[in-house]
Amino acid sequence: MTTPHPLDQWLDEHHITEVECLIPDMTGLARGKIVPRNKYRPSEGLRLPEAVLALTVTGDYPDEDFTSTADPDMRLIPDPKSVRLVPWANEPTAQIIHDCVAFDGTPAELSPRNVLKRILKLYDVAGLKAVVAPEMEFYLVQVQPDEDIPLSPPVGRTGRTEAGRQSFSIDAVNEYDDIFDVIYDWCEAQGLALDTLIHEMGTAQMEINLDHGDPLELADQVFLFKRTVREVAIRNKMYATFMAKPMQGQPGSAMHIHQSVIDKETGHNIFSNADGSPSDAFLHYIGGLQRYLPPAMPFFAPYVNSYRRLSRYTSAPINLSWGYDNRTCGLRVPHSGPEARRVENRLPGVDVNPYLAIAASLACGLLGMRERLQPSEPLSGSAYEQPHQLPRHLDDAIEMLSRCEPLAELFGEHFVKAYAAIKDAEYREFFDVISPWERRYLLLHV
């Protein structure tokens, strides 16, 4: 007699009629299959073409094949810890994140979730456990199907759009109470550990933070959170956008990543010495971020639009300065007690794939600890007055990533080559588009 799979009991207890079998693709979007409950066999998994992992954001492929030319399937194996109800479904529906593996059981190299697992295994082998806490900014905007028309802030409960910027305004958040009440309810139903909600600097720009915890669990939560917020907004006749720079004249949207490292044997934060002072590991970690974040930028700024955010004029990082409670720096160390000492990586836009952004940040810090890299001196003034130290465009960032052997070793050479090719294909497709600015100012004037 075969032992029932633990998921079968959960699905039966919740009277599930359909199962959404999800995998995060390179952009961080959900792909997969929807399967009737009576056809879903958790112990067997299911199949999906491997080429799904090589898609660009436009649904195309890079010129070079990074999966087999035979276009084979891969297996999707459910992660029982990821099962959740779909709160907006009309019938009892489950969503389960699946891992991508070959038919011999080896992890699929191009799976972003597997890449994060690969980095976390390196921490585990070293006797360490990483802890992260993401902060996600996003805009609510009016529904606008015409891509040529700029986005506008939505109408709130008063029947008006926001006037100017309303940083940290409670009343401005209350304009969208109906939306946030549902977001909190649906996130609670999915076990997404939301912390605080604030109104950010931009017009109808919000920030929601997640509680700190295991990096893989937090990446899963960001993946599902974005999906949830989009669904709530659409049902309220709005869009929620996670573009890094969706509107001219408004700040960009980030996904700041707070990170610390725990000694698995003692349970103590290795960023602090016994006397509470910053440890060598803490400084080496920051040194690794300073050394390796520039070539890792395609994971933190994955699209052409991402680089519009990284400007000294938009309150976003432009360099790798670090400082204590200094928000102008790309790397900020918040005030805290010794056991909560952490580094906040402020470079990522909220347009990132959360699995890859978290993996890249942890990888850079790990390299710093391995190589015992020393950081610069902490900055107390404005980092916006310091020189620009980051790639200015996606094509420059791709080239830097392609030359960085230490990151290729940690992520897997095949993955880095494929990711760079996908980003290059997206950049070339964008470069073919002639913008309204060019037609307006160049058409008859040059």
TrEMBL record:
EC number: 6.3.1.-
Keyword list, A-Z: ATP-binding, Ligase, Magnesium, Nucleotide-binding
Domain GS beta-grasp span(s) in chain numbering: 14-105
Enzyme class label: ligase
One Pfam match: Gln-synt_C
Cofactor(s) this protein cannot do without: Mg(2+)
Keyword rRNA-binding carried by entry: no
Record GO terms (molecular function): ligase activity
InterPro entries: Gln_synt_N, Gln_synt_N_sf, Gln_synth/guanido_kin_cat_dom, Gln_synth_cat_dom, Gln_synth_gly_rich_site
Start and end residues of each GS catalytic domain: 112-446
UniProt record similarity statement: Belongs to the glutamine synthetase family.
Protein name: Glutamine synthetase family protein
